[in-house]
Amino acid sequence: MKFNSYIYRIGLILILAVSVSGCKKYLDEKNKSGFDKDNYFQNEGQARTFVNGIYTSLYMFQNGDAYGESPFITMELFAGHTTSLGQSVNNGNVINQRTDAVNPGFETVWKNSYAAIANANLALERIPGIDMPEATKTGLLSQVYFLRAFFYYHLVRLYGDVPLITASQTLKSPDLYPPRSPVADVYNLIISDLIAAKGSGTISGSQANSDGHVTLGAIKTLLASVYLTTAGYPLQKTENYAKAAAEAKDVIPAYTLFTDYAFLHDNAHKNQGELIFQSNYLVGVKENAIPQLTVPFNLPVGAYGDHLGAMIPTNAFVASYEPGDLRAQERQFYFSSYPQSDAPAVTVIFGVHALYKYFHLESATKGSAQEGKSDENWTFLRLPEAMLIYAEAQNEADGSPNQYSIDQLTAIRTRAHLTTPTSFTQAAFREAVWRERYHELAYENKAYFDIQRTHKIFKTSDGSFGDATSTANEQGVTMIEQYYLWPIPQREISTNPQLKGAQNPGWN
Q1: Contact 285, 279 (CB under 8 A)
Q2: What is the pLDDT along the chain (508 residues), one digit of tens a residue?
Q3: For the chain, which residues make up each domain, given as ranges?
Q4: Virtual CA dihedral for 302, 104, 76, 309, nearest 10 degrees?
Q5: CA pair distance 400, 424, nearest whole angstrom
Q6: CA-to-CA distance for 237 and 187, rounded, in angstroms?
Q7: Rounded to whole angstroms, how far apart are CA atoms 103 and 388?
Q8: CA 157 to chain centre
């Protein structure tokens, strides 16, 4: 039988079992290849195990290889403020806008997202029939609704119209090979899922789940992001600005900004403070290559076997921070030198700015217990994003910023040792918030999605914003319109007869 990536939609391939202690709850992977959905969903323990397994699909965003190819890097390359010093031809092609639909990164996100969605669909069908406390049941279902929405949110933004699958499948299902559904329909499902998730009343507390499970804060922040996105291109449902502001405003008081940027990437502060939703890692259970991918290419910076240089900020982007901005100073968000891993008295000068934001001291230190083994978490959502969503959305909804919006911008900038004007026009505040999104959320997979929804790119030369398809970035590349979306993976088009001739514009 020819390999068919649609098999991932069935939800029978792999269930990831997890232990019941601490942050290992969805980290400890075990192959359940003998899984039978008809016999499996019998009790609360099985339901928890199955739901925990869905979380592990989050790892695909940070999966990397020896060439430095990884979805979290590809998304940054599309935004135009990243160079790649590594060996990947595919990464270079993305930067210079000459890639094609057979780039393996495009298939990675598609395939793994639909695998997660398949298991979410199965969980939503089977968990309601299990005998367990009602609060436990609705709490598990809320997590599943969030996760299905999360993966569809990435699919719809990256690929546009995508197959909308909301029921479990078998090899004999009539809709095993579905057509693409309109973007509006996909967003309707995402919003419906998130409303269902937050409405259960059993997911509570912003930081109550230090093991990394979904919280009410995560649900509301993601819903605010979805409303903000749908208010922009391509849907332009401007009435959703007010909805985005309302959701984000509820989140802000529940979290606290860190006093040290180092807390964003150390082990001691995982799932705490301003960190709303993370993908969780643990040495010996699930590790990652985030530091190796983001340190300079072939320089002995950190005790790693590989130094891949796959995601390196452009010098122009680092220089675009305002004078005195703490984030641009050495070993805050970026660094340009560091002691040699096996000779600490020798300082390695990079010649570029690397991301200290993702430098993991616990695994980088020679002789440490974690030497060369990174388990730093990846952050999907954090407080500054919620603050800036509120500020932008309220300004758009009301025609000018209110004091609370200005306060959010001020708090982020004050932490960065910057002052903030006390009054703004609507237009000036809009761009001030956009700039802050670029600088505060830098290299967190937000910039490409901001380009999609605003059709503007950040001009590092003067801090203004230009039309995305007519303004060259600092690398001299002008975005072509087809790059607003990724291509449907070629394997999917070749396999699914419903997708033939349905490629995104420009990718044929």
Answers
A1: no
A2: 233 444 445 444 334 333 333 335 555 444 343 456 667 899 999 999 999 999 999 999 998 776 778 999 999 999 999 998 777 888 888 999 888 888 888 999 999 999 999 999 999 999 999 999 999 999 999 999 999 999 999 999 999 999 999 999 888 787 788 999 999 999 999 999 999 999 876 665 554 456 889 999 999 999 999 999 999 999 999 999 999 999 999 999 999 999 999 999 999 999 999 999 999 999 999 999 999 999 999 999 999 988 999 999 999 999 999 999 999 999 999 999 999 998 999 999 999 999 999 999 999 999 999 999 999 999 999 999 999 999 999 999 999 999 999 999 999 999 999 999 999 999 999 999 999 999 999 999 999 999 999 999 999 999 999 999 999 999 999 999 999 999 999 889 999 999 988 899 999 7
A3: 289-374
A4: 20
A5: 8
A6: 11
A7: 33
A8: 12
DSSP 454-496: H-EEE-TTTS-EEETTTSB-TTS-BPPGGGGSPPPPHHHHHH-
Q: Judge whether 273 and 263 are in contact, CB under 8 Å.
A: yes
Residue 155: Cβ-neighbour burial (10 angstroms; 0-12, 13-18, 19+): buried
Cα(290)–Cα(267) distance, integer angstroms: 14
Residue 189's CB is within 10 A of a number of other CB atoms, namely 17
Distance (Å, whole) CA 376 – CA 154: 22
Structure-block tokens of residue 96: 């210079």
DSSP string computed for 188-240: HHHHHHHHHHHTTS-S--SSS-TT----HHHHHHHHHHHHHHHHSTTT--TTH
Residue 293 carries which side chain, given as an amino acid letter?
Answer: L
Q: How many CB atoms lie within 10 A of CB 477?
A: 13
Q: Is the dihedral of CA 190, 192, 195, 201 positive or negative?
A: negative
Per residue, the 3-state secondary structure of 141-196, as one string, reads HHHHHHHHHHHHHHHHHHHCCECCCCCCCCCCCCCCCCCCECHHHHHHHHHHHHHH
